[in-house]
Design brief:
Length: about 260
């Protein structure tokens, strides 16, 4: 092999990243674009900031506006992306929502809001791309974004915990069925990362101090911390990995 780093190259690949306008989805989009992929960023609102950051590194990024709260959005997303690229090679199921509330007060609407996006959409969007990949016999890469709450119960976030535990299970279930079609389904479980998702926690001094004291690395994670695992799971470097969830957590789970 001439250059071992080619294993990590995404040149010529197209990737869908959901929730690409901010936070971890923005970080993952930048990483995949920097590795050579044309990134199609799906978001409810403008991805201007992501577009700007990817322009700065001369990467390729196209925004796809869609609300992912209902699976009726899937056809539009696949059609729009397919009209602009020969083939989708990578899907990153990143968009997710969290609702903090005592379990005793959770309403059916809040439950549906969280699980429809974090779980049902992950399954059906994966199914939609896998149908293409099985038909064209070329395979592809699915990266789901799990959580520490794929392993732990969490506090006051029962629907979120349920959905992220489902993401870890789905990652294994889909990997089992689709590995034979050259489709790698894996996940990344971020630890406590400084994004909108954790603003409330970071603004609560007691919770913030408790969380920081428990992270061996001694700091909140950042979108940049996702770069390596995202490129690895999107590239040929991970071709014999199926159904595994990588923690990017500053040591939280090891503690
Ligand atoms: P974030 O709130 O900044 O990002 C969430 C993303 O989901 C945004 O891009 C948002 O626009 C998108 N989104 C939400 N509802 C949507 C909808 N109906 N349609 C389309 N897009 C929608 O938070 P983040 O931390 O960047 O979260 C990204 C992923 O990482 C989520 O799945 C989250 O659960 C997961 N995660 C975050 C942390 C953390 O500590 N920040 C830890 C573990 C897992």
């Amino acid at each position: 092999m001439n250059n071992i780093m080619n294993l990590f190259s995404l040149t010529g690949k197209s990737a869908i990243v959901t929730g690409a306008n901010t936070g971890l989805g923005q970080g993952i989009s930048i990483a995949l674009a920097a590795a050579g992929a044309h990134v199609f960023g799906v978001a409810r609102r403008s991805c201007d900031e992501t577009q700007e950051k990817i322009n700065e590194i001369n990467g390729m990024f196209t925004e796809v506006i869609a609300d992912l709260s209902d699976i009726s959005a899937i056809d539009k997303i696949i059609n729009e992306v397919s009209s602009k690229t020969d083939r989708i090679d990578i899907l990153v199921n990143n968009a997710g929502v969290i609702k903090r509330c005592d379990a005793i007060d959770v309403t059916p609407d809040d439950w549906d809001l969280v699980t429809n996006l974090n779980e049902k959409m992950v399954f059906f969007l994966s199914q939609a791309v896998a149908k293409q990949w099985i038909a064209d016999k070329k395979g592809g890469k699915i990266i789901n974004i799990a959580s520490m709450l794929s392993y732990q119960g969490g506090i006051r976030v029962p629907a979120y915990t349920s959905s992220k535990s489902a993401v870890a299970g789905l990652t294994k279930a889909l990997a089992n069925e689709w590995a034979a079609f050259n489709i790698n389904v894996n996940a990344i479980a971020p630890g406590y990362m400084a994004t909108n998702n954790t603003t409330q926690l970071r603004n609560d001094n007691n919770r913030n101090d408790d969380i920081l004291a428990r992270i061996p690395a001694g700091r909140w994670g950042t979108p940049q911390d996702m770069y390596g695992a995202a490129i690895f799971l999107a590239s040929e470097a991970s071709s014999y990995m199926n159904g595994f969830t990588i923690a990017v957590d500053g040591g939280w789970l090891a503690r």
